[in-house]
Every structure is written in structure tokens, then in C-alpha cells.
Specification:
- The protein is an all-alpha fold.
- The chain has five helices and no strands.
Amino acid sequence: MKAKLEFDLEDSEDRMSHMRCVKATDMASILFEMSTNARKRITMGSEYGEEYYKGVDDVFNKLRELMNERNINIDELIR
């Protein structure tokens, strides 16, 4: 099966859609990094209190919630 996408790069909305397609792998890579490794890097070695860690956890829980709401499954995008 093949699919072809066509964009009118003279049209600003089509140009934006084209850039979204071109950058999709980069965006998926960033989401993967954020959802799997970023929390560890942010908290590793930090000497902040429990409130700090709760705040970090809240942010990453919200990220996961938003991804779930939009059916973004990183495993389908990055292997």
C-alpha cells in the first residue's frame, strides 16, 4: 500500500501542514524523550524537597494524560 500527500506550498495552511509532516519524526522523538527520559534527567542529583518532586511528577502526569487523550502512543511512532 502506498500513500501520497500533496501540498500547495503557495497556500499558507498547506505550507504549515507540509512542515508538520516533515517534522513529525522530530516531534515524535521529542515526545519520546520527554515521556521516558526527561524526568530522570530533571530530578537526578537534585537536592530539592518533596514539593519539587511532586511538581515534576504533576507535569509528567499531565503530559501522559494529554497524550492519552489524543491517542498518541509513542511505541507506534518510535521503535
